[in-house]
């Protein structure tokens, strides 16, 4: 990791991740969401707003999924969520990034999970729904990490303070 090799001073990331050599400053939580395409029996025609997932979570067992690769934080969260529900995901496609997975889900390839911050504020939702998934099982948490060996400079501290303020403003808006 570049942080441990002193190639970067600070790392902005998303849980789950933990390394005993790093210190973490938590910044904000983000809502967990899912894109449900019109190819899914869970799709609700005419729904144009982002709403709470209206079904029992175990109905997700019958879905096809477009997910990020197993190394990504979002995939680790999705795996944790599905494992807790005792669901073996039928993954039809994997993507290196969440934007591509979301685009494929919008086009009907399968359901995907993502943090709200990844969504476009002007979602059309013509052929898909977006639902918040209210759960204590999984959540997206953002952090800044730095080496425990590093003495933070005034610039580092200012960056962390700015990130906290921006993420607090963002969290308050969702």
Automatic annotation (TrEMBL):
UniProt-recorded name of the protein: LysR family transcriptional regulator substrate-binding protein
Gene Ontology CC, one term: cytosol
Pfam families cross-referenced by the UniProt entry: LysR_substrate
GO BP term, pick one: regulation of DNA-templated transcription
LysR substrate-binding domain: residues covered: 3-167
Listed InterPro entries: HTH-type_LysR_regulators (IPR050950), LysR_subst-bd (IPR005119)
Highest classification ranks of the organism: Bacteria, Bacillati, Bacillota, Bacilli, Lactobacillales
Domain of life: Bacteria
PANTHER family per UniProt: HTH-TYPE TRANSCRIPTIONAL REGULATOR BSDA, HTH-TYPE TRANSCRIPTIONAL REGULATOR YBHD
CDD domains (UniProt xref): PBP2_LTTR_substrate
Organism from which the protein derives: Trichococcus flocculiformis
């Amino acid at each position: 990791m570049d942080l441990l090799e002193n190639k970067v001073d600070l790392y902005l990331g998303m849980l789950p991740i933990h390394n005993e050599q790093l210190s973490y400053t938590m910044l904000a939580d983000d809502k967990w969401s899912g894109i449900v395409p019109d190819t899914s029996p869970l799709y609700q025609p005419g729904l144009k707003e982002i709403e709470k997932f209206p079904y029992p979570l175990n109905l997700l067992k019958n879905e096809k999924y477009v997910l990020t690769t197993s190394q990504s934080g979002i995939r680790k969260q999705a795996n944790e969520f599905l494992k807790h529900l005792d669901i073996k995901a039928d993954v039809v496609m994997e993507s290196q990034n969440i934007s591509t997975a979301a685009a494929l889900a919008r086009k009907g390839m399968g359901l995907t999970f993502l943090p709200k911050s990844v969504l476009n504020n002007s979602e059309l939702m013509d052929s898909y729904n977006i639902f918040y998934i209210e759960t204590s099982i999984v959540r997206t948490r953002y952090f800044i990490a730095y080496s425990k060996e590093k003495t933070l400079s005034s610039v580092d501290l200012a960056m962390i303070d700015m990130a906290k303020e921006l993420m607090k403003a963002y969290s308050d808006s969702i």
